[in-house]
Amino acid sequence: MDKKERWELAWTIFVIVLFAIVIAGTLPEDFVVGGVPSVERCLVGVPTSKIIDVHITSYQYLFKINESGGGIISDELGSPYYYNLIIGHPGEYLNITMRSADVTSNFYFADYSDRVVTDQIVPGLVAYDVLPVPNITGAYAFLGGEYNGPWFSYQTGLLLSLPYSGYFTSGNITAYEKQTSVAQSVALKGDPYNPPIIGPSTSFYLVGNQCGIFNDTVPGPTLITCAHKTVTVKMYIPTPDDDRNYLYNYSVNGTAYPVTSVYVGIYAIWWNGTITLVKQVPISYGTTMCFTFNATAPAYLYGIITPVYYNYNPCGLSTKIGDLIGVQKGYIMGAWGVILVECD
């Protein structure tokens, strides 16, 4: 063995030993929430009452989320999971664990005025991060930053920074609107992915399109209304007739049909993260669905808040040919959004 070969062997052994040290040092921490040491350091000195443990499972086009701690417990209509939604209070920290159910994905949160987070979510591995809940209450967008199919842009959710008690103040709503406006016109000033803001008002009309979304945005516009007022929200969804619309699905024999097994409604979000039914109806295409309610909760969800299973398989070709044309399926949300309730 000449000198060059000895150096190569020594370098190879050094790298192997280094990897062994890293694995041995981090393995005990790799299977707990926030287990990565660099993440744990972000929570040093933070009271446990200010920490929300967040478990995110990424599916094809969807985030399924479970939360506990910090006065928040995920409970959506009796289910322990939210879909494309995270809830927290200002000053709290989200201690996030991320896993993939079936696809390489990404969690991307870009509040340029505070913190930018981007994490790869890979099948078989666990990702961790810590994210402060924005101090300005409001609805902040997060998204799947990894292309995983033509519906990947629908994998967009909202981090709802909710008051501990009471309602959104007009001053805070103004600050949120200003930051969002600046972020969408001047880069690196806030979250540029926030939905458009409509209001304050007590009457809203949301119009769907052949992409299965309201007012041409995912999620739909963030609506601002007033506490203890009677609020009317009207929603119109046209009859799906286009393959770009996830509400236009296919039967096993390849016949296209509009999805009818979903509900459209209004749902209250309470201070502890519980989501309860206000009103809902089976989806009705081509007609205006009208919802009237008294705004007593600090926030609401509207639209279709449960994911729709989409399977593009005309004439069974994806099943029969498989790898030749691929399989286009997944859980999708598009026609939904939030309502923030303000009170002076």
TrEMBL record:
Which InterPro entries does this chain map to?
A: Cupredoxin (IPR008972)
- Superkingdom assignment: Archaea
Q: What is this protein called?
A: Oxidase
Q: Which organism is it from?
A: Acidianus ambivalens
* Lineage, opening ranks: Archaea, Thermoproteota, Thermoprotei, Sulfolobales, Sulfolobaceae
